[in-house]
Amino acid sequence: MKKVLLCLGCNGSLEHKRIDAKTCSGKCRCKIWRVNKEKSVLVSFRMPIVLHTDLFLAAHACNQGVNAYLNNVVSDHLTNNYSQGT
Ligand SMILES: [Zn+2]
Prior knowledge:
This protein is mostly helical. The protein has helices at 26-38, 49-61, 66-82. It is globular and about 40 Å long.
């Protein structure tokens, strides 16, 4: 059975969209962007250029942007190291 992905903004079908599409339209993309912006803080820090290049390549290999990739890596790290009851 073919898995039909749904839009993160309106739960509409993404059947005829790109394989990596997360929203059905620019309107839903903006909606998600605004929600995520309200639930996040901007973090700024320095890292060596070579590390940033490796980070960019690792994110690209996972078909993610650097922000999404870094968020997932940090989230997984914190979950694995600081979760309650483990
Ligand atoms: Zn939508």
